[in-house]
Amino acid sequence: MKLLFNDVLRRGRKNFPDRVAVTAADGQISYYDLDVLSNGIANLLLSKGARPKDRIALCMSNSSLWIYAFFGIIKAGCTAVLINSYAEQKDKKELASFSRCRFYLCKTGDSPELSGTEAIELDSGISPLESFDSRPLTEKQTAVIIFTSGTTTSPKGVCLSQRALLCNAKALTRSFGKYHGEKICLALPLFHSFGLQVALSYLYMGETVCLPEKINGDCIGRLIKKEKITDITGVPTVFEGLKNTISNDVAKSLGFCIVGGSNVGEELTKKLRGKFSNAQILVGYGLSENSPVVSCLAAKDRHLDSVGKPIKGVGVKIKNGEITVFGKCVMNGYLQKDGSLSPPAKGVVLTGDLGHFSPDKYLYIDGRIKQIIIKGGENISAEKIEKAALYCGACEAAAVAIPDEIFGENIALFAVKEGQKDFDTRQFENKLSKVLSRFEMPKIILPIAQIPKTPSGKTDTEKLRKILKDK
C-alpha cells in the first residue's frame, strides 16, 4: 500500500469529518476542515504559478494554519521546506535562498526581504475548496526538507519522503500501545522533526493535536485543563521546566508523556515518573535523518539508562562503536548548494552517536563522536563528565572541549545549580574529584544560570564556546 499524506486526510474526512483534528490559538479545525482548507492552499499555490516539485518555504509559529498550509503544499505536488520561525530574518532568508524556494509562506507582516523567492502572506481567511485535483508527489520523492539544529556544525537540509515519515508514524503508533489518549499537547515546534512526526502520528490515528500558544508551563497547564488533554510530548528541557512549574493536579491528570528530541537520561526519567505519577512515560531516541524515531523505551520498562529497542522497520547496527541506521524511514539525502541531493552511502545513516547493544537488545548511547574530548591522546566522553556533574548536585550541565597548549584539548564544564548565589565551585569540584579520575577533571568549571539551547532543545555548544571566549 502506498503511503501518502493525502490518503491520511481523505480517510479522516470520510470516517470522522466532524472530529477535531487540530486546536490552537487561531481556532479549531475538524478533519473535514483540514482537507478542504489544505485544498484551498494548494489551489492558491497553483494560481500563483507553482509547478510540480517546486520548493515552498513554510515559516510560521505553531497554528492550525501551519498544519493545513503544510498539507496544501504537498497536495500541490510541491516540497515543503520547514524554516525555524524563531530564527533571525537574515537566517530565514539564507535558508530560503539555499533551498531555492519558489515561494515563501508566512503570516501577514512576517516576510523577510527575499531575492528570487516570492512571499505569500497568509491569514486565517483561506477559502476552503470542497474538491481539488491534487498532483501528489510519489511516496518516495522528497516531500519535506527539515533543517537540523546545527549544534556543532551549520544546519543541514534533510530531505524526507512521505513513505519515510508515514512508515515512522506507523511504527511509532505501535509503540504507543494502549497508553495514548484522544488528545495530545504538542509542546514542540512543528518545524522540528520530532514535533512534525508526533503530529503526523496522532493525525494518522485520527486523534486531536493541541497546540499551546507558547511553550511554557502556564500556557501548557491552561491548555491541558481547558481541553482535558491526557497526552503530552516535548523535549527533555520542556519537561524539566514543566516539572517545576506545572501544578500537581494538572500533572496527575496526564496519562501519557512522550519525551524525545535529545538524550533524556536515567535521572530525568526517574524525576518525570515521580512528577507525572499517573502517566506512562515513553522515551524516544532518533534523528531527523531517520524521520526521526529510531528506538523507544517502553512506558513500563526498567532499563532507564538505555533508549529502548529499535522500533519496527528501523535497522540499527553498531559499526566501529558508532550507531548506524537503515531502512524505509531513512532520508533521501542532504540538500546540496546546487539543489541536488547527497544520499546516504548504501542507504545507511551514520548518526554520530557512540553506542552499544546490551545482550537483551537494548540500545545504549555512550556519547557523541564530536563530543569526545581528546585530551593528551585519551578519549574522554563529554556525556560522562555531564552525568558526573548531575550526580554531584548540578541540575543541568554541559561539557565542551577547549584548546590546551599541553594536552591539545581540555575540558570546560558549565553547571547549573538551583540558587546560583549558593554555588560553591570549590565544594562542587571536590565532589567531582571523587567520581572522576584526575585526567577527566575539567580545567574550567563555570556556574551558569541556564544552558543555551537550540530551538529543538539540544545544547548549543557554539554559544557555550562564545561564552568562554567572552570571559
Give an overview of the whole structure.
The protein is α/β, with parallel strands linked by helices and 471 residues long. It has 13 helices and 26 strands. The protein has a 9-stranded mixed β-sheet, with helices on both faces. It has an 8-stranded mixed β-sheet with strand order 6-5-3-4-7-8-18-19. A hairpin with a 2-residue loop joins strand 22 and strand 23 (378-381). Helix 2 (31-47) crosses helix 3 (64-75) and helix 8 (236-245) runs parallel beside helix 10. It is globular and about 70 Å long.
* Gap between N and C termini: 58 Å
Number of helices: 13
Strand content: 25-35%
Query: Class by helix and strand content?
Result: alpha/beta
Residue runs with pLDDT of under 50 for 5 or more positions? none
In total, how many beta strands?
26
The coarse overall form would be globular
Radius of gyration: 22 Å
Largest sheet: 9 strands, mixed
> Spatial order of the strands in the main sheet?
2-1-10-9-11-12-13-14-15
What portion of residues is helical? Answer: 25-40%
Task: Kindly summarize this structure in a few lines.
With 471 residues, the protein is α/β, with parallel strands linked by helices. The chain has helices at residues 5-15, 31-47, 64-75, 89-98, 162-176, 193-204, 217-227, 236-245, 248-253, 266-275, 382-391, 425-433, 461-470, and strands spanning 20-24, 27-30, 55-59, 79-82, 103-107, 118-122, 142-147, 157-161, 183-186, 208-210, 231-234, 256-259, 280-286, 293-297, 309-310, 314-319, 322-327, 333-335, 341-342, 348-357, 363-368, 372-375, 378-381, 396-404, 408-416, 444-447.
